[in-house]
Each structure stands twice: as structure tokens, then as C-alpha cells.
Amino acid sequence: MSSADVKFTPFANDTEALTLGELNVENHTDHVAIFGNVAFRRDAEGLRQAQALKEVLDAVVAALSGGDLPAHAETPTGTTVKQVKNPFES
């Protein structure tokens, strides 16, 4: 896939995802999550991945720039944090 093939509309749905190397970009209606790992090597594939990531981030910036934003978005209700014991520690 070339960077021109990247079609990612930020905040459009809760189903769209993109993978670049081991980097994942997940679309949601209230946020875009980027997590994982990507190494940009000095080759054609590294350039393709960098261009694709730039395209996604440019789309996120454009979507955020187009509206009146609050200082901080509210986190969804019903989300709870629970501390659990590390299963690898005795």
C-alpha cells in the first residue's frame, strides 16, 4: 500500500484501524488511539510508512482544527480503573 492509499477519516467511526509495522492507529468517534512500535528505516518501506503516518496525523490535526474545542474532553462515564496483582511477581 502506498501512502496515497491511506484512507483514514478521524473521529468518523469506531471500526476503522490502520497498521504500520507494529504501530496501530484506531479510530473512534471521540478519540484516535495510536499505540505500538514502528521503526522508520532508511529505505523505500521506511519512507512509505513515514508518509502514511504523516497523512494520518495531518488528517487528525485538520479534523481537530475545524471546530470549537474544549480545553479538555470528558472521559466516558462507566470507565473504571482497577488495580490488579502482577501475575509475574510472587
From TrEMBL:
Tell me where on the tree of life, at the top rank, the source sits: Bacteria
Q: What segment(s) does the record annotate as region Disordered?
A: 68-90
Spell out the Polar residues composition-biased ranges: 76-90
The protein depicted here goes by the name: DUF1488 domain-containing protein
Q: Organism source for this protein?
A: Pandoraea vervacti
| Lineage, broadest ranks | Bacteria, Pseudomonadati, Pseudomonadota, Betaproteobacteria, Burkholderiales
